[in-house]
Each structure stands twice: as structure tokens, then as C-alpha cells.
């Protein structure tokens, strides 16, 4: 009897506006047997985001209760009362089916997941070409106020210092090129036993 194949973990982290969600979305449409890990958050939905598809939207109190119950693989209070985390049940559900799970998480969460899963996980850091370019992308996105953009840029400067903790740093200065490079990196990682 053969042992069922357990899926691998692919972690994408980056400052907000670096293009990681776009790259992850691209990879999910390719033949990598990937399923997206839906993170939990205590922030309000943005735009057309849907509960259970984009995030599991929880109140700050609900999130803290799940922390107390140790239901998270990793979690972070990114801003006051704004939590993000990965539910253990989500990772187990996907990998036990033999699927590879892909994460779109903050840098602290990404580094923590990598540390827990070691060689079973690949951690990619998507880096913007510059802070100026990042600011322009955030403005063009049109989802945040100028104050929120300033807060995201301050956070991005700190997040960029985490890049060396990741297996691969992918500079997204050309989105099509970054998507192709991400495909090559995944093909190589998933071909390893």
C-alpha cells in the first residue's frame, strides 16, 4: 500500500502593493496542483472581497478567541486590532488531500511558516523595484486613503529588511517577467522529492 502524497507549502510574502497577490493568482491558474490558503483577518473587507474566498473575516474579539484556542499556525497583529493569520485547519485540509498549498501572507507570518515546515516549504519574497514605485502602485490601486498609504509605506520599509530570511527574493519590476520567474521557481521546487 502506498502512502498518500502530502502536499508542499509555497509561501509568498511582500510589502503591500508589490504584486504578490497578482503573481499568486497567476500561479493558481497553472498546473501546479495548488490551492490557495485563505487567511483570516480582523480588518473589514475591501472592494469586492468575499468572506471564505479572499479572507475569513472575523471581528478582533473572534480572532483573539481563536488565538487563545491555538487555532492558528501563525498570526500577527499588523496594526492595532488588525490581525492576520493562517488557520491550522486550512493547512491540514489542503495538504492531506495531496494538494500544494500557497500562502499570501505578511513577512512575519511567512518567515514563521517557513521555520515550522523547513524543506517542505518554499518561501518567496516579492520585492518592489523601489519605495517610490510602491507608493505609485498603492495610489493607482485606489483602495486606500493617503494616511493609509503613508502607513503602508512605513511598514514596507521595515518589511524589506525581512527579505534575507526567505529562500528566494523575486524583484517585481516587470510583472510578466516576475510571473514567468515564479513559474520556473515553483517547477523546480515541486519536482524535488
From TrEMBL:
SMART domains in the record: GuKc
NCBIfam families for the chain: guanyl_kin
Pfam families named in the record: Guanylate_kin
Role played: Essential for recycling GMP and indirectly, cGMP.
The protein's name: Guanylate kinase
Annotated CDD domains: GMPK
Source organism phylogeny: Bacteria, Pseudomonadati, Bacteroidota, Bacteroidia, Marinilabiliales
The protein's enzyme class: transferase
SUPFAM superfamilies named in the record: P-loop containing nucleoside triphosphate hydrolases
Keywords annotated in UniProt: ATP-binding, Cytoplasm, Kinase, Nucleotide-binding, Transferase
Matching PANTHER family: GUANYLATE KINASE, GUANYLATE KINASE-RELATED
The protein's Enzyme Commission number: 2.7.4.8
Transmembrane segments: none
Chain positions recorded as ATP binding sites: 14-21
Location in or out of the cell: Cytoplasm
Ranges where the Guanylate kinase-like domain occurs: 7-187
Catalytic reactions on record: GMP + ATP = GDP + ADP
GO cellular component: cytosol
Domain of life: Bacteria
